Batch of 2 targets.
Target 1
Amino acid sequence: MFNSVRVRLTLWYTLVFGMLLIGFSLFIYIVLSNHRHAKLDHSISNAARTTANFFQSKMEENAGDAERAAGEALKALQLPDLHLAFYKGERLIASDHPEWRGLAISKLVSMASRPEGDTFCNTVDRFGKEGARLALLPVKAASDDDSDAYYIAVAEPLDDFAGQLEAIRQVFYFGLPATLLASAVGGFLLARKSLAPVVAMSNQAERISANNLHERLPGSNERDELGRLATVFNELLSRLDHSFENMRAFIADASHELRTPLSIIRGEADVALSQDRKACEYREALGIIQDEARQLSRLVDDMLELARADAGQRCLRAEEFYLNDLVEESCRAAQVLATQNGISLSVMTHSDLIFRGDEGLLRRMMLNLLDNAIKFTPSGGSVSVNLIREETRVKIVVSDTGIGIPAESTARIFERFYRINKARSRADGGSGLGLAIVRWAVEAHNGSINLTSQIGQGSTFTVTLPL
Ligand code: ADP
């Protein structure tokens, strides 16, 4: 049960709400109670003062006869719910309520704690059912010698007050649990409604596997948190889908590429072994097998290189070297092929250009570009390589006067296994991975590659690398 977010949310919510509610109710209760006490103290103190004035005037009228004055005051001041008592020293001289008899003045004085102007207020328990609030006022009666010894006590029973507080308590006793229950049910429904999209998302996510990666999670409002979660998850799915598609295409292309040389090798071997042949025929067959095996191992090397790059296992071996040397050496290596194909190869470099990067990878990049330029340039054409140093970057421009690349293919030319003319490219030993490796090498050095080409006029590949 506690493993459900809905239940946990509801419990937390109810707990916090309950604590707040109890705190608030207590606060209201205490404020109300204090306010009522203060009001009560004020009214009984006023009553005590009025009584004192009356008593003093009666004392004067009765020539200092306190008992008489008190008796007259009692008769005259019949206040509803208020009980009066007159003390002279310890002795009770007049009262309108039997409870006063048990209340000695020394006890009242010792209890009187809260001053309200000239009176002292407190609560006495043994007065009526619920006790009473009491105001005690010392009185001076000028006509009497023992003037300081008079006290007027006014008590208001707390029955009403206790009844009111009890009513408030009852409201809290029944109201609080009911409110809490209602809020818990409301909270649970709210949590269920809020988490419904999450449940829908997890159900849908459960259904998604490698076979239906194109499916997406439902999301209602893209701008709220859950909508954003669904969007982010869907973007992740799109990327995964894209990678899976690429992987599938790569595997299909790779097996196709591997099948051709393998079937040639098998065919040649089958034919050669089907009957006794002359030594030159065997040599010819083995020569073909050797060519195909070379192409095969080149293909496997390229695939491995790209697979390592994808997996992030092929780290750059960065070191400082002369880029101009690398370009010149690559051109020298390609010169043999160029001469064989009747193509002139020229190179212009910048002297002593120190570069920091992966020399082996960049050499491979150069050889791939040169190989392509020579392969796709007819005899009599030319290939030129320029190394240009700019302030913060260096450019390697490989141009040829070859067959060119159609505009619709320029965007796809760097894709793996993409070839414009598959038959021709294969005959030239190409697998369609050369430019994919070139692009990866350039990007691994934070550079960029640009292609401009015109059919029948030639192509120019410009590699820009930051220094
Ligand atoms: P390949 O191994 O087939 O050369 P690449 O990835 O190096 O594979 O090149 C992909 C395709 O791009 C080639 O098959 C070819 O059709 C085209 N291409 C590459 N370089 C050139 C070029 N300099 N001139 C014309 N076409 C080119």
Target 2
Amino acid sequence: MSGFISRLERLATVDSTQRVVRERLEASEPEVVVVVADVQTAGRGRLGRSWQSPSGAALLVSVGLRPIWLGPRHAWRLPATVALAMLDAAEEVAGLREGELWLKWPNDLVATDREGRLLKLAGVLGETLPGPGGRLAGACIGIGVDVDWAATDFPPHLAASMTSLREVSAGRPVDREQLLQAWLDRLEPRYEALREGRFDAADWSRRQVTTGREVEVEAGGSLVCGLAEGVDPESGALLVRAEGDGSIVAVGSGDVTRCRLAPAGPSPRHPAAGSRPGDERGRAGGL
Ligand code: BTN
């Protein structure tokens, strides 16, 4: 175990790794606390949703951090950092080409199927512990990665929108332990950079599959529809050019429920968009 991690707990079954990590932080455990489970009985997703995975088929892990040096307005960079580290780790461990996996704003990991639809591979949940003077006392960032599910094992209501590393790597077995280690190896330098005030906004922005696409975003009870022009490196918001008046709407938190190539073609701000997948409906994740 590297000096980056103060405690790594492996649990067979737990309600939620998020709950355990929060308890460790509340008990004054120093960072970085890592909790991994084979099974969660009450896994939590973003926006109050649940998170389900069959036994032993997913990497279910939470990290407990003490980013007291991070301004609360940049707390969104923690789940983004976790997602970027996993994107790189997953591509390597599953033998995928760099850039084969994408982020769907804010931090879902997605791949594409043969028809070009976006399929969710992993979701990230960020929760913070408030400290004195409005600072962050701690953060619990959890990620669930579908590693070894066969398409036929997905619950029917998720089968059309989810995938696993095994599916995207054409059946190649992917080892959860290797993925965990590869992710921690990548998380350490990214987290240390964040501590020094450096967030790789360019990477986070470049890997957003939403950029240059027509999106529908459910945000705070209303629906924002328009062309996703990019993400704001300061606030982490999704920038959508609204249908109708053409104004730019900055969506701070929400759920991209539809994402398809813009009719006018690739966005000049995101040249790769023209070669990217076509149409998708699904779930999203983030702080
Ligand atoms: C989402 O996409 O809605 C976020 C899903 C986050 C799931 C992970 S699994 C490990 C950690 N423990 C939880 O209860 N949730 C996160």
